[in-house]
Amino acid sequence: MGTSFGRGGATTFQQDLQNADCILIEGSNMAECHPVGFQWVMEAKARGATLIHVDPRYTRTSAVADMHVPIRAGSDIAFLGGIVNYVIGHDAYFHDYVVAFTNAPTIVSGDFVDTEDLDGVFSGLDAEQRSYDPSSWQYEGATVQASSGQREQEPDTRVAEQQGSPGSHSGEHQPSVSGSGRGTTHGSGGAPVPSSVERDETLQHPRCVFQIVKRHFSRYTPEMVEEICGIPQDLFLEVCRTVAENSGRERTTALAYAVGWTQHTVGAQYIRTAAILQLLLGNIGRPGGGILALRGHASIQGSTDIPTLYNLLPGYIPMPHAHRDEDLDMFIEGASTAKGYWGGMRSYLVSLLKAWWGPHATEANDYCFDYLPRLTGSHGTYETVMAQMDGGCKGYFVVGENPAVGSANAKMQRLGMANLDWLVVRDFSLIESATWWKDGPEIETGELATEDIGTEVFFFPAAAHTEKNGSFTNTQRMLQWHHAAVEPGGDARSDLWFYYHLGRRIRQKLAGSTDEMDRPLLELQWDYPTEGSVTEPSADAVLAEINGWDAEGRPLTSYEQLDEDGSTACGCWIYCGVYATGVNQASRRKPGREQSWVAPEWGWAWPANRRIIYNRASADRDGKPWSERKAYVWWDEDEAKWVGHDVPDFDPAKSPWHRPPAGATGAQALAGDDAFVMQGDGKAWLYVPAGLTDGPLPAHYEAQDSPFPNLLYPHQQRNPVRQVFSRRHNRYHPNPSQPGSDVFPYVLTTYRLTEHHTAGGMSRWLAYLSELQPEMFCEVSPELAAERGLEHNGWATVITARGAIEARVLVTDRMRPLTVQGRVLHQIGLPYHWGPNGYARGDAANELAGLSLDPNCHIQEVKAMTGDIRPGRRPRGAARVELVEEYIRRAGITADTGMEARGGR
Amino acid sequence: MNIGKWPALRQLTTNDPSGRGAAVKSARTEHLTPRTVQADSIAKSVCPYCAVGCGQNVFVRDKKVVHIEGDPDSPVSRGRLCPKGSASLQLTTGDARLYEVLYRRPHGTDWEAMDLDTAMDMVADRVIKTRREHWQWDQDGKRVRRTMGIASLGGATLDNEENYLMKKLYTAMGAIQIENQARI
What we know:
The structure holds two protein chains of two kinds. Chain A is an alpha/beta fold. Helices cover 24% and strands 13% of the residues of chain A. Chain B has helices spanning 7-13, 27-30, 35-38, 83-86, 88-93, 116-133, 160-173; strands spanning 41-46, 55-61, 64-70, 101-104, 112-114, 135-139, 142-153, 175-179. Classes of the chains: A alpha/beta, B alpha+beta. Strand 12 of chain A pairs antiparallel with strand 4 of chain B, so a sheet runs across the interface.
């Protein structure tokens, strides 16, 4: 969403779903995974909205939907692309919205060549390096910097040109640069756009974005959708008609998705296709519209905003890269934009450095920019696991997470941990990540012996949310403060306590060191007030630092106050305002019934307490609501400002007819109809000229392991730049037309249950929840049960080239066989909550998953895999390993299987 | 014994056919009060499971959490909680929680108890040592100022303030392999 709109958060909020005329839920089982939020879907339904659920399984979401559309897991781009084609082909797009607020009229460089003309890949592919050079995707005569995603793809060239050495883009460090992972689907972004891009508002120019999008999706026909997704044409066309009829001036459609869309080797492009559709229909920034990303953890949005992620600094500022960002000026040159709010990059970063290094950060020393460690490639969690196995990474903190069963290729996670010097696990109970050395699957199979494992393990008991103050950022970008009810018992402590005191001890031990490597630690601003009997650091004081202060120490109220001269400090610029006037805005709790449905006085949402972002687009070019029924914010002529139900996501005093003066930069360069204020051109992007590693438009590629050839691009089976790793414990399945592919004939897809949470660390140790969902199971159709001799309530063994697990069998009509490319396909549902510890036990679905990653966000593909199923329990001991090896032999799998960039049919 | 006071009979005769009202009250239940009423204080909180962000009221008596229920004031959840949120009393006060630090020495076959202070000190020493041994000033002739020896996983279940201190400390340490569930 970051690359399409400029910020990577949900564009709307849950309560606003009630205003939708149609809700399309896909890649999510909202009724079971976000049940309380689902009440707003039911409110919409009660008001007459149509609910569509697209999912491989029939779930409780499907049960209350007007339409359930069973789909083959891994084919959503073909499905959504088909709707895009319908909307354009039937002139059902919202013409005035598209022309005003998207880049549809913008002319693209003549160098760009689409998948149509390159056999399924885009121009710029270097198949050997498995990367794209995106320079040919640019606008005509322009260099637009991405608002988020892979920013700094271009700066190599830009900086090099300034230095008089053009063409360095293909330099030898290119592979590591392209893999540096600047991307995040959750980003907040923007960068330099020339003062004018060429636009054709008639949308007729053959190289305008609209025509390119139209041609690109023209092969996504209802026939193709039927063949690829297994969805009958009449059902598909009914979805198209419903969505189109419920969009436009008077009506809006909302989209909701979860990890059913992200966990693929083309995951970011799934979301992109949804964004294109919602923009064409004019549903972004308007009530009852938008795209709601449904996140599965209390603060998963927060942990990307203030990132515990390798490629980002707080507020979606990219981590500097060794080869490009040698000093502050080079970094700003590469990462900021000439137009839009990313023009303030220097202010945001300097204020962050001031928050971290205080008086030590001065103009003379680049505000300690040199203290930031540098990236040299992709350093994601899966690369880290491989570095652990290879011996380069020796210490590991695991904090409220359970990779031994909760991360893909669980075996590699454990083997990585078995090769560490030390491991710290912080959790409530002895989760599998704490005990694998004693009772993990490899101990049982004999692959590891406890006495041989040299890893030192520390288990620290964690404090619960009731025992600490702090804020969570929920799925709609809203920060809510939770108050400590009691102090934690025994040695249980908050993570705030752990990191504060760990930092304090390290700094004490290093005190007096003159070693240059210790300076960033010794000069770090690390004095927080503590309170209570356990000397808990004040979370309130940390939030105040995140918000920031001016030279006099007064709390800031808005990121517009941030300065690049070092006079302001701010720990996360997009959260600036959360502590405005010295008041913790996240703890505001004016009851919902005493406010409008927007509830602006409950908690605080970034940015600037806006609840629907890009809401300037809820009014037309002249600032009038598109319709009275869908009025949200609008231009008040008499007051000469933007007013309405929400905080305008726009300069409140900038008239809709404003045109920036020549030479204006940053926010000043935005015109009165540039509704997407983070974007380098002020427009939402149907076509992404920069910021994605795998193409400016989504293309349907088959999953890494798929039983079917790619019908849309017959010469390109998979995403050519997906990340794959040829390793002993990470083998892929044969291509669909190769011998051996029939060894893994079924599609596997993982999912969650209402009664459990993620890898079970917060649910499998609870008696209530364990009783409700006591053990691992798999869902199969009666037809598959008959085909494989599986019995309801009996046992089955599920096998891939990575592992074999057992599960109870649930035979149910909820799993419907699909007809795909003329043959019957069975799909198997696998909840992924289990592991061998706790009250509710079972094998982990992640034993089956291999590591193949989306090249933008480096997320694993677990929503569409293949495998085999057979009746009975899995073998015990060494025989479990032998079973997997037998399958590998039988399928003819080698180190090269599934590794090709091009072709791969 | 007064047969007329039997609950089953009262259920039929006193306009309480479902047996959820006055018919099932006894002298004992008459005097029961909800835990919510007995509480000394109520802390306003947020459910720690998924990202819907349901409001919770946490009831405290004698410095112990005695009850957790949905907060009707929340505009998002309007007082509702799902099975997980409803079980959060057990999450926070259940018998499966551990309250002591455990240590497994290299090649050890079992856990050993350890006091918190010693464990913190040992972890600080290991961070310093690993950082020194795996310190990197340059790669391919470019300054990197980092250590690839230390990694971290976790954050999506934590508070913003906790993530902030983690990122701040790790960055100052030179550790870059900092990740969380958002990538999983």
